[in-house]
Amino acid sequence: MRTVQMTLDDKLVEKVDNAARLIKTTRSGFTRMALEAALKEQAEKQLIHKYQLGYKNNPVKKDEFDIWESEQAWGDK
């Protein structure tokens, strides 16, 4: 593990400390969780953007998936 120095607004530090106390962790632990969540969210946004670009550059053609209609099992038969 590595120590990183950060500059934060006093009100933000107070909010982080309160939140950390609620979930019974430390300021560092809470910050690690928050950073991991933010990185996961960013990765998901990048993946969504890639999918959107893919479909924009290669849109689904009309009737492209019709062949799979007979393969669907809806459970009502």
Keywords:
single chain; 77 residues; mainly alpha; 2 helices; 57% helix
Description:
It is a single chain. With 77 residues, the chain is mostly helical. The protein has a domain at 10-59. Helices cover 57% and strands 0% of the residues. It contains 2 helices and no strands. The chain has helices at 10-22, 27-57. Helix 1 crosses helix 2 (27-57). The longest helix is centred in the middle third of the chain and has 31 residues, at 27-57. It is elongated and about 60 Å long.
Number of DSSP strand runs: 0
Poorly predicted regions: none
Rg on CA atoms, Å = 23 Å
Order of helices and strands: HH
The level of helicity is: 55-70%
So what's the overall shape? elongated
- Give the biggest sheet: none
Beta-strand proportion: under 5%
Q: Helix/strand-derived class? A: mainly alpha
Total helical segments: 2
Our measurement of the CA-to-CA distance between the termini, rounded to an integer number of angstroms, reads 57 Å
Mean pLDDT: 93
List the helices and strands and how they pair.
Blueprint: H1 10-22, H2 27-57
Helix pairs in contact: 1-2
Summarize this structure briefly:
The chain has 77 residues and is mostly helical. It contains two helices and no strands. Helix 1 packs across helix 2.
